[in-house]
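Milestone M4 deliverable, item 7.
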Amino acid sequence: QVQLMESGGGSVQVGGSLRLSCAHSGVMYGDNRYCVAWFRQAPGKEREEVATIDKDLKTTYADSVKGRFTISEDNLRNTLYLEMHNLKPEDTGMYYCAARYPSWKQYRNNYQGQGTQVTVSS
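Output delivered:
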């Protein structure tokens, strides 16, 4: 059973920074590792995949966050992170972490957390 719990959201001004954390259990590493990711959802907007780490440890980012966001993981602490810098109002939304197996696009197992709210104001 995979469980994920996000934290670290909040309200910041334009140009500010936040670090989101996702504590998880049951997410496997090694040869059968899960793919993990952050995505966000804003009211009235489509869900957007912000950053992913695939089974080959390759990271990908949405064009809207490249150069500003960094996804990383601490396997010893079973925690996934999203460092966000130079935040913009359009980054506002609910941020979720997710885990899928065996691949992000073609998965049999799909889990996500409850989300953490990020609000960027000018």
